[in-house]
Amino acid sequence: MQFSRKLLLSLMAATGAASAAPAAPAPAAPDTAARQAQVDAIVRAISPQRIQARMEKLVSFGTRHTMSDTVSETRGIGAARRWIKSDLERCGAGKLQVRFDGHLHPVDKRITTPTEIVNVVATLPGTQAQSVDRMYVVSGHYDSRRTDVMDFTGDSPGANDDASGTAAVMELACVMAQYKFDATLVFMTVAAEEQGLYGAGDFAEKAKQKKWNIAGMLNNDIIGSSMNDEGKRDNTQVRLFAEGVPADQAFSDEQKTLVRTGGENDSITRQLARFVKETGERYVPGFKVTIVNRRDRYLRGGDHSPFLDRGYAAVRFTEPAEDFNHQHQDLRKEGNVQIGDLMQFVDVDYVAQVARVNAASLATLALAPATPSKVGVITAKLDNHTELAWAPNTEPDLAGYRIVWRDTTAPLWTGSQYVGNVTTFTMPQSKDNTIFGVQAVDKDGNVSPAAYPLPSRQYGK
Ligand SMILES: [Zn+2]
After folding, report:
1. Separation of CA 289 and ligand 1 centre (Å)
2. Cα(343) to centroid of ligand 1, in Å?
3. 6: which of 116, 219, 393, 419 lies 20 to 30 Å off by Cα?
4. What's residue 18's pLDDT?
């Protein structure tokens, strides 16, 4: 939720924050409700025509199965990845660092012969020294499959799954490369999603080994159709799958405390989801980001999972209602019904809307300061207010901090207050009844995702 400045001021007055004597006014708050010109320009530049052209090109490779031909220049996954790389090098010349990121995968459940699995990674380095190590990854998978996931020769156009996500990521890379951001953006198209998430898994594992600070990962998979399996169109929303606390991970002390204090809806992934919803809906009016509080759909997985498993914040975009006749299916006619994942079932304007939500979110994340660290709620003694403390951010364009809050049963923030460039602040509400978050704000009004305060008996712990 985004408050207007007027409402914010009246809220601050109501809580006493703005009622100080005129001689000592509260610090001027950056305008966090205004849309940033750079983000608006990026969102406007997203082109359905270019997305369509790239999707058609991807489909033209016949099959992009992970074990398909790598020698041909016109058919198979090798030709597809060489084209993706050259297209990104062309559009991001002098700005994007484009590379193949591959590994030789041994024989596995869905890999019959050792196979080179190659991601195409385009990096746009951040321009602020204090933020360049902070990365945001946006991903789609360029491999495709047939009914038989081991059939690597027959046609599998994979238009929706996942030329849609791949083309969206390429469009984001090409548009955003023309702009500068504080933090680093990584535009990634991966292979072997259908064989077991091996491309994304390899990247996430390398990131963990190298201790990369991936502050958020957006997976775009099956974002191509607004039509459900009963022929009903809904082009007004996209689902955003966001896990609470990963179930298959040994709990850290921090995660235990998160759950013990009722913070299971305030994991870093849920904070990212709230951020994407608020930012996406602000910059793409009339288009709803529908958060689904689970890792993924039943019986399905995606490339955000390997990131979640390694402790990163990661979410998945998927269209509102899938038509399973157009996924993972051999091309065929059943009576008069065309089965298969073909371009004719794709709504390119819809793909562009989802790409715009990604664009607004990534741009704002990479312009904003980092989420504050070491955020604590001070529990030194029994009382009925909330004393929050956090470590100072280091960005030179930092303006200060904003505290957000909601009832413990509410999904989204219902209140916010700019508190200036301080590292402690006391709110009148009781910490027992309210969930708080602390965000960092830069001088332009870009706001970071929120951090959940863990209980602390003293400052700086
Ligand atoms: Zn997929």
Report:
1. 19
2. 15
3. 393
4. 41
pTM over 0.85: yes
Convert 174-195 to b/e letters by CB count within 10 Å (16 or more is b): bbbbebebbbbbbbbbbbbbbb
HSE-CB of 232 using CA atoms within 13 angstroms: 5
* Closest C-alpha to 382, from 455, 286, 331: 455
Within the chain, which residues score under 70 in pLDDT? Answer: 1-27, 248-249, 458-461
**172: Cβ–Cβ under 8 A, 6 or more apart, which residues?**
46, 138, 187, 355, 358, 359, 362
Phi, psi (rounded to 5 degrees) for 263: -100, 20
- β-strands 434-442, 398-407: how paired? antiparallel
What is the CA(346)–ligand 1 centre distance, in A? 14
275 CA → ligand 1 middle, Å:
24
Cα-to-centroid distance, 434 and ligand 1 (Å): 39
Cα 258 to averaged position of ligand 1 atoms, centre (Å): 32
**70: CA distance to ligand 1 center in Å?**
21
Q: Counting every residue, how long is the chain? A: 461
| Res 146: pLDDT | 95
CA of 318 to the centre of ligand 1 (A): 9
Report the separation in Å between the CA atom of 221 and the middle of ligand 1, taken as the mean of its atom positions: 5
The predicted structure's pLDDT at residue 251: 86
pLDDT for position 250: 82
Distance 397 CA to ligand 1 centre (A): 39
CB 405 within 8 Å of CB 415? yes
What residue type is assigned to position 276 of the chain?
V
Q: How many helices (H) and strands (E) does the chain have?
A: 11, 17
Structure-token pair, residue 336: 């008069």
Give me ligand 1 centre to Cα 140, in Å.
8
**Closest-CA residue to 314 (of 135, 176, 159, 147):** 135
pLDDT of residue 460: 54
Q: Ligand 1 centroid vs 161 CA: distance in angstroms?
A: 5
How many angstroms separate the alpha carbon of residue 192 from the centre of ligand 1? 10
Q: Separation of 402 CA from ligand 1 center, angstroms?
A: 37
Distance 453 CA to ligand 1 centre (A): 36
Query: 22: which residues sit within 8 A by CB, 6+ positions away?
Result: none
∠ CA 269-247-358, rounded to 5°: 25
How many angstroms does the Cα of residue 238 sit away from the middle of ligand 1? 15
Secondary structure E strands in 36-164: 97-105, 115-124, 134-141
Torsion 422-428-430-435 (CA) sign: negative
CB 270, CB 295: distance < 8 Å? no
Residue type at 418? Y
Name 312's bridge partners. Answer: none
